[in-house]
Here is the input.
Amino acid sequence: MRPQELKMLWYKYWLETRGGFVLAMAVLITTAAAGVLYFPAAVRGGMHDLALHHHANAAARGFAIYVREEVFEKLALLWAMLSVMLGTGGLLKEKLLGTAPFLLSLPVGRRQAIAVRCGVSMMQCGCLALGAYGAVPAAALLVGQSYGLGLALRYAGILLAAGVAFVVYGILISTAMEGTAWPAIIGATTVFLLLIVPEAVKGIVRLAPLAVLAGESYSHGGVMPWAGMAISSVAAAAMLGLALWVVKWQDF
Here is the structure.
C-alpha cells in the first residue's frame, strides 16, 4: 500500500469513528473526575464506618489507595468496554450500508483495510487511556490532593498493554457479525461479564483480568503484570490473524 492510499484509508476510518471516540473520551474523563471529586465524601463515610464497624474503606486509607481501588478499576472496566465498541464496524457494516463495493474498488486490499482499522482503533484507545488517567492528577488539585502525572500515565500504559486484546476483539467481532449496533452491544456485554464474573467468584478471583488491567500487581509490589500483558498480546495477535483470515474469504 502506498503512503497516499494508507493516509486516505486512515483518514476515512478516523472520520467514521471520531464521534464515538469523542463520546468515549468524555465518558472516561467525566468518570475519572467524578471519582476523584467524590473523595472528600468518601473519607467522611469511611471515618463513620471506622467508628461504627472498625473497618476503613479505601478513602480512609489514603488518596493513593482510593484512586487505585475506586477510580482506576472503574476506568479500566469502562475503557475495555468502550474499546471494543469503538473497534466495531468495518467491511460488514459497509456491506450493510451499501458502501462496501466502493471501498473494495479502491486500490486497497481487504486485509489492508482491516489492518489499518486496527491501527486507528489502537491509536484511539491509547488516547482514551492517557486522557482518562491524565485527568486524575488535574482533578486531584480540586480536592486538595496530589497525584503524580507520571504515575498516572504509567498505569495508563499498563492498561493499554494489558488490554490490547480487547481492542482487537472489537475488530474480530465486526468480521463475524453484520449490523450497526449489535456487534458493539454483544462485544461490550461479553467484556463486562469477562471482567466482572471472576471478581465476584472467590475461587477464580486470582485469575481476574480486571486486576491486571488496573495494574494491581504494580500498585502492591511495583511488579509489572508481564504475564497478563504477554497473554493479551498473544490473544490480540491470534484474533487479528483470525479476522484477517475471515475477511479474506467473505463475499461482499
Summary: DSSP finds twelve helices and no strands in the chain. The radius of gyration is 20 Å. The chain has a mean pLDDT of 82.
